[in-house]
Fold this protein.
Amino acid sequence: MKKRLLKSSLLALTALGLNGSVFAEEMDKMWGKKSQQLIKPSHQSLKWFTEDKYAMFIHWGLYSEMGGVWQGKTHYGIGEWLMVMANIPVDAYKASASKFNPENFDAKQLVRLAKAAGMKSIIITAKHHEGFAMFDSKASDFTITKATPFKRDPMKELADACAAEGVRFGFYYSQNQDWTEPYGGQYKGERPEGYTPKDFDVYFKNKVVPQVTELLTNYGDIGIIWFDTPGNMDAKYSSQLVDLVTKLQPNCLINSRIGGGYGDYVSLGDMHIPPVRPDLGVWETVDTTNDSWSYAWYDQNWKSPKTICKRLVQVIARGGSYMLNVGPKGDGSIPEKAIETLTASGDWIEAHAEAVYGTEASPFDQGFSWGDLTTKGNDVYLHVFEWPVAGTLRLADLGANVTSASILNDSSNVEFSKDGDVLEIHLGSRVGRDLSMIPVVKLTLDGPVKVTNQAKQIDGLTPATLLAGVASTEGCEVNEHRWMEKFGEWKHDYFVEKWTSKDAKATWDINVLEAGDYLVSLEYSCQNDAVNSEWVLSSGDESITFIAYESGYDAKKKVQPGPPRQRTFKVTLGVLNIPKTGLNQLQITPRNIIGEGIGIKGISIEPYR
Ligand code: FHN
């Protein structure tokens, strides 16, 4: 049986999303084949990186001035890719710099916002794919100091403000793609006569090396240099950059998107919060406050303060760090809603700092429907996203005894009891209590926490979802699908799919804390040829038979703009009795095989009351 661990090495792009989608495939390839593989952590600066947990990412460039509009027409999609989306000629794009005058840029305000948000560092686009240097560079004339009326060097102002406020500072630098540089990767104009791909060397020597040198020489201590989209750039260039950075600033960290398998830590695919702890050493998730990285006037999908905190906790609970982006406008100001949500989420973080900074991951590889965990020494922090209806949480053996339980910032203690190996935390009702948007329960143990059983906990009180990504498979596969949606936001899902025979099976380990009846639902996708296929879900001697319904997707006619896996159905299958507690298994097998069968995203198991 193939046991699946969520390693991001096996990634399948299946999708072209809606708007801006034509670039999704191109962008996916640009992440580079070796950017998401295990890097053995060794750099001394990883200590602060893993303790700090939370950073501000900033996408700011000429595209911010356009805000998604070119010549009066709005191009909906990933804001900083406007030049490509609107097919803007290189000369016209470069000429637009004369209109860029971000007079409302205030480095001190930006740094104060990052601090209020609870972020410990700032990483800003020094040069994005557009090729425009947001700093004073001798290696190019296409810079904010030479080509705009603004003339100031905002990177210098930000570096100074960060140094004054004790915030770490770093640069994003697009080392491969340069759309306005004739020898740069993915140049969007006509290449000079006699051009060959080897001329990338010219671009690299004349622009990348001098500019990276400037960034690491003229702006004080640089915490991170964040490279992006290496694509198929030769690994020798990545290696040269590593040498350069190490020579100029040995304490500076490099992310894995430098390419070629280099880097000090792994940057996952955009907006990817792994549902299961990945085996990738030190890693980060990069995300946005809304959907697009850079400012786009139409993008109003702002994450709420609770969503921001929840995503931060989900990342650090899986062992990662979180970098959240803001896109300042062309005038240098920060969108009001970003200020509001970052400040409010920062208030929560400040009040729960001990459960965030310097913590370790959850001892459980996956989160729970009610929340997630972080740990520090013998303390365990339960971040309660959804207050349990029953007022009680159950946890399987933590490997040590609880000596005290309390809610952070709430004077009342929390009752707890033990039933065999099962810990019960009696939170009571939320009604009438002045609790924060994500209350945190602190458990102190009499020894280090240790969870040996990673089977999904079925606790009789709260719902649980068995994810495709952790299924063991025989005669079927677990694959990751990812696609970009409307404004640059990537979605990532795992599916059990490609069923090859009637004997195939997908199996999940479950740890049943309470025996009894459970209501089982299935989230799946189905192409037309698998409609009416029959399936059996079973645990021990108990089973439920079901059929796959109409999918709405016609693979042959290609009626759907996106890929099949984007369209899933959640159906209630029925009541399943699980008669015994402890380690059990739940299995799905086909009764007949039609096409490749269904794609299973998850099985939800709720107490039947
Ligand atoms: O193409 C870029 C994109 O514009 C943005 O900068 C993101 C941030 O991670 N990186 C690339 C796509 O992954």
